[in-house]
Specification:
single chain; 232 residues; alpha+beta; Archaeosine Trna-guanine Transglycosylase, Chain: A, domain 4; 2 domains; five-stranded mixed β-barrel; 6 helices; 25% strand
């Protein structure tokens, strides 16, 4: 992703050092946005630091068993999403509500011994990869993915209206898969697998299979948009 000052880009001179915000119930994707309610002291400190500098927070998914060591540093999945704070509101008791936009995938190279309340890491940025071999079938894949996802959302009129805006735009397949993977109720582990896949054609195939399989069951739901607040 090109550097710049746009909210969809990382700042020029990005160092690769990130503030980690691990949660057990959220996988953020590039091109998607999530409201967060911040109340733990360590994450209030994290957000204050982000607001005073680059406004970046990196969301990570806690691995199973995180409850045993939540106050320390339970393991996280290595593929994460760097997000940018778009807006925020501080409450009278010091808590914060904010809206975080996903900017870019990254892979944790190593966690850092930081003198802070929150965890920090060095990351490698991950770019979408479009294989040349898939260029001839990509438009058909996009069409199939849009149609299947629309069937998934057929019972949700509010979601359909927003979906149609996306479908009518000239959106790239990679961005489309990210928006759909974030918005559809596919399960956290499936979402994490989709976040970790940088090959856009494989990610689209994975998503199409997941949506098709879910359509064949009685549990057809959408996560909702705007999404609910995620609590730290």
């Amino acid at each position: 992703m090109a550097e710049g000052t746009d909210q969809n880009c990382l700042p020029a001179g990005f160092s690769g050092r990130v503030r980690l915000f691990p949660l057990p119930n959220l996988v953020l994707f590039p091109h998607a946005a999530q409201p967060l309610h911040i109340f733990e002291p360590r994450y209030l400190s994290l957000v204050d630091e982000a607001l005073s500098t680059d406004r970046l927070i990196t969301m990570a998914l806690l691995q199973a068993g995180w409850q045993k060591d939540y106050e320390a540093a339970p393991p996280i999945d290595e593929t994460v999403c760097i997000g940018r704070i778009l807006t925020y509101a501080r409450q009278h008791d010091g808590r914060l509500n904010l809206f975080l936009a996903g900017v870019q995938r990254a892979r944790v190279v190593r966690e850092l011994n930081a003198d802070s309340l929150y965890r920090q890491a060095e990351v490698q940025l991950l770019e979408d990869f479009y294989p040349k071999s898939g260029s001839s079938i990509r438009s058909n894949m996009k069409r199939r993915l849009l149609q299947t996802s629309r069937n998934f959302l057929a019972a949700h009129s509010g979601a359909i209206s927003q979906f149609d805006k996306v479908a009518d735009s000239d959106i790239q397949l990679g961005a489309l898969t990210d928006i759909l993977a974030f918005s559809l109720n596919l399960g956290l582990l499936h979402k994490q697998e989709l976040l970790a896949e940088v090959n856009v054609d494989r990610r689209a195939e994975m998503l199409l299979t997941l949506v098709s399989e879910t359509l064949s069951t009685s549990d057809v739901r959408v996560a909702g948009y705007p999404p609910d607040f995620s609590l730290n």
